[in-house]
């Protein structure tokens, strides 16, 4: 209703008429150029000597020298016989100065006919204006591509989040911080790769299409393979294939790739997202903790300049070592429920219900502990914290603790109240693994889910898997943290969006 009041039908109609006129004029300009034999889409390349940031940061060396740049014109100010404009490339923007006497009457007249958004190749000498702005004094330019769509109005920009995500290409043009976020994302992934490669890990690729929806407890996307005439599933994890490679003797492997889960969407969840999973033979949770700390600390130093960062106004100290806290202790500390004194399922259900949580009749003590943690503790873990000793009921792929088989050698680590990663001392007992798969399948059947057991993975364990540490880290959440991004959509180039029907 407020939007309708701000933009009544008459005003919306006027805006649309103006837009249609702009589109018409731009197409007329394009046709005129083609009629003159100056097709702006004909050129296939342009030789650049520098980018904007390089010229600005090396001004003392480049002053007075001839350079060539290329990019999108984002502003222009015509002043009779001379004009100023700004050109945007991937590194940033730089001002250009175009004078009629330098480029010639015909070229200058043509320059005044250009539109904001047009892509130019520019040659000129480096100088500073009287106001001290580093600029290019243009000697010649060429139109490399004609923009037929106007960019968002300068002072209002592209602020509607839905439109920003749908038209990311425009978002990155008008919002420079968006380009920086995705450049930082690339840098973070490079750092992760470098750290693992230096430690002898090899990067591998495993199937995206699976014949079974096993591994993580998530709802899959289902597709159909016409040639084989079978349903297949977009992967909900990379874990089981990577562990097969450990069995095969690769010993240190990792994969960075897309995961697909047919579940809800919010500021922390997108149906397709990126993880890294890594597995190392002959190590355990301690080894995985050290890797987790290292990749976050090194990435923070590179992207944020240090380990003292701020996320959405909250200071976060990534300096290691991070706190380690068993789940039962975390529930006692943050929720006031001491499960060390509650040893039976009935008592655990009563305590959980007393805490105001909804409890199912068949819930076990371990499931109650996890529910209390999930609902009452997780959001309070602001500073980096490893939560260890997960109940076996919620950890079907983790090795049991020798001294307390009700719990597993598993940790998740949390920062700003969000899970950032998950790790196990991997279960390598094929008999125990098969029993847990069967139990998982029975629960799915009881809930009208599809019961599937990966017998081939059990077979791989029977061949023999060495003691192994494994970990998965959510790349998107890691990038959110290190770029101070509020929503997961801000760090995924093309997030999943609802289809707009014409």
From TrEMBL:
<dbReference type="Pfam" id="PF00152">
    <property type="entry name" value="tRNA-synt_2"/>
</dbReference>
<keyword id="KW-0067">ATP-binding</keyword>
<keyword id="KW-0547">Nucleotide-binding</keyword>
<keyword id="KW-0436">Ligase</keyword>
<dbReference type="Pfam" id="PF01336">
    <property type="entry name" value="tRNA_anti-codon"/>
</dbReference>
<dbReference type="GO" id="GO:0006430">
    <property type="term" value="P:lysyl-tRNA aminoacylation"/>
</dbReference>
<feature type="binding site">
    <location>
        <position position="412"/>
    </location>
    <ligand>
        <name>Mg(2+) 1</name>
    </ligand>
</feature>
<feature type="binding site">
    <location>
        <position position="419"/>
    </location>
    <ligand>
        <name>Mg(2+) 1</name>
    </ligand>
</feature>
<comment type="subunit">
    <text>Homodimer.</text>
</comment>
<keyword id="KW-0460">Magnesium</keyword>
<dbReference type="InterPro" id="IPR004365">
    <property type="entry name" value="NA-bd_OB_tRNA"/>
</dbReference>
<dbReference type="InterPro" id="IPR004364">
    <property type="entry name" value="Aa-tRNA-synt_II"/>
</dbReference>
<comment type="similarity">
    <text>Belongs to the class-II aminoacyl-tRNA synthetase family.</text>
</comment>
<dbReference type="GO" id="GO:0004824">
    <property type="term" value="F:lysine-tRNA ligase activity"/>
</dbReference>
<dbReference type="InterPro" id="IPR012340">
    <property type="entry name" value="NA-bd_OB-fold"/>
</dbReference>
<dbReference type="GO" id="GO:0005524">
    <property type="term" value="F:ATP binding"/>
</dbReference>
<feature type="binding site">
    <location>
        <position position="419"/>
    </location>
    <ligand>
        <name>Mg(2+) 2</name>
    </ligand>
</feature>
<keyword id="KW-0479">Metal-binding</keyword>
<feature type="domain" description="Aminoacyl-transfer RNA synthetases class-II family profile">
    <location>
        <begin position="182"/>
        <end position="495"/>
    </location>
</feature>
<dbReference type="GO" id="GO:0000049">
    <property type="term" value="F:tRNA binding"/>
</dbReference>
<dbReference type="InterPro" id="IPR045864">
    <property type="entry name" value="aa-tRNA-synth_II/BPL/LPL"/>
</dbReference>
<dbReference type="InterPro" id="IPR044136">
    <property type="entry name" value="Lys-tRNA-ligase_II_N"/>
</dbReference>
<dbReference type="InterPro" id="IPR018149">
    <property type="entry name" value="Lys-tRNA-synth_II_C"/>
</dbReference>
<dbReference type="GO" id="GO:0140096">
    <property type="term" value="F:catalytic activity, acting on a protein"/>
</dbReference>
<dbReference type="GO" id="GO:0016740">
    <property type="term" value="F:transferase activity"/>
</dbReference>
<keyword id="KW-0030">Aminoacyl-tRNA synthetase</keyword>
<dbReference type="GO" id="GO:0005829">
    <property type="term" value="C:cytosol"/>
</dbReference>
<dbReference type="InterPro" id="IPR002313">
    <property type="entry name" value="Lys-tRNA-ligase_II"/>
</dbReference>
<keyword id="KW-0963">Cytoplasm</keyword>
<protein>
    <recommendedName>
        <fullName>Lysine--tRNA ligase</fullName>
        <ecNumber>6.1.1.6</ecNumber>
    </recommendedName>
</protein>
<dbReference type="GO" id="GO:0000287">
    <property type="term" value="F:magnesium ion binding"/>
</dbReference>
<dbReference type="InterPro" id="IPR006195">
    <property type="entry name" value="aa-tRNA-synth_II"/>
</dbReference>
<keyword id="KW-0648">Protein biosynthesis</keyword>
């Amino acid at each position: 209703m407020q939007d309708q009041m701000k933009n009544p039908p008459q005003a919306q109609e006027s805006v649309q008429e103006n837009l249609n006129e702009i589109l018409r004029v731009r197409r007329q300009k394009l046709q005129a150029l083609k009629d003159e034999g100056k097709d702006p889409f004909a050129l296939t390349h342009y030789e650049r000597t520098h980018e904007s940031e390089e010229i600005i940061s090396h001004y003392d060396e480049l002053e007075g020298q001839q350079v060539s740049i290329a990019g999108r014109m984002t502003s222009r100010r015509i002043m009779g016989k001379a004009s100023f404009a700004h050109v945007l490339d991937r590194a940033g923007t730089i001002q250009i100065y175009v004078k009629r006497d330098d480029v010639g009457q015909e070229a200058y007249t043509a320059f005044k006919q250009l539109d904001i958004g047009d892509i130019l190749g520019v040659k000129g000498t480096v100088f500073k204006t009287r106001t001290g702005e580093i600029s290019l004094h243009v000697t010649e330019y060429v139109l490399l591509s004609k923009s037929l769509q106007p960019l968002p109005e300068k002072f209002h920009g592209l602020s509607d989040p839905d439109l920003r995500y749908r038209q990311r290409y425009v978002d990155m043009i008008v919002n420079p911080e968006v380009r920086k976020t995705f450049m930082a994302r690339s840098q973070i992934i490079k750092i992760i790769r470098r750290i693992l490669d230096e430690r002898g890990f090899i990067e591998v690729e495993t199937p995206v299409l699976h014949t079974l929806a096993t591994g993580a407890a998530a709802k899959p996307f289902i597709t159909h393979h016409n040639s084989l005439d079978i349903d297949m599933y977009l992967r909900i994890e990379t874990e089981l294939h990577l562990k097969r490679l450990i069995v095969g003797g690769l010993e240190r492997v990792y994969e960075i790739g897309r995961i697909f889960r047919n579940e809800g969407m919010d500021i922390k969840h997108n149906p397709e997202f990126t993880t890294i999973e890594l597995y190392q033979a002959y190590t355990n949770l301690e080894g995985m903790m050290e890797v987790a700390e290292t990749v976050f600390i090194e990435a923070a130093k590179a992207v944020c300049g240090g380990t003292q960062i701020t996320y959405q106004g909250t200071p976060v100290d990534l300096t290691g070592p991070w706190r380690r806290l068993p789940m039962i202790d975390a529930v006692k500390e943050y929720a006031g429920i001491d499960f060390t004194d509650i040893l039976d399922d009935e008592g655990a259900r009563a305590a959980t219900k007393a805490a105001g949580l909804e409890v199912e009749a068949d819930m076990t003590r371990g499931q109650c502990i996890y529910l209390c943690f999930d609902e009452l503790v997780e959001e309070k873990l602001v500073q980096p914290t490893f939560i260890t000793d997960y109940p076996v009921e919620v950890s079907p792929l983790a090795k049991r603790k020798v001294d307390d088989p009700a719990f597993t050698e598993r940790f998740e680590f949390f920062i700003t109240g969000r899970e950032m990663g998950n790790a196990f001392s991997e279960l390598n007992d094929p008999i125990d693994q098969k029993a847990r798969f069967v139990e998982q399948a029975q629960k799915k059947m009881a809930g009208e889910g599809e019961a599937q057991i990966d017998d081939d993975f059990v077979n791989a364990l029977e061949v023999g898997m060495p003691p192994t540490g494994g970990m998965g880290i959510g790349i998107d959440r890691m990038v959110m943290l290190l770029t101070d991004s509020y929503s997961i959509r801000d760090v995924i180039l093309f997030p999943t969006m609802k289809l707009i029907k014409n």
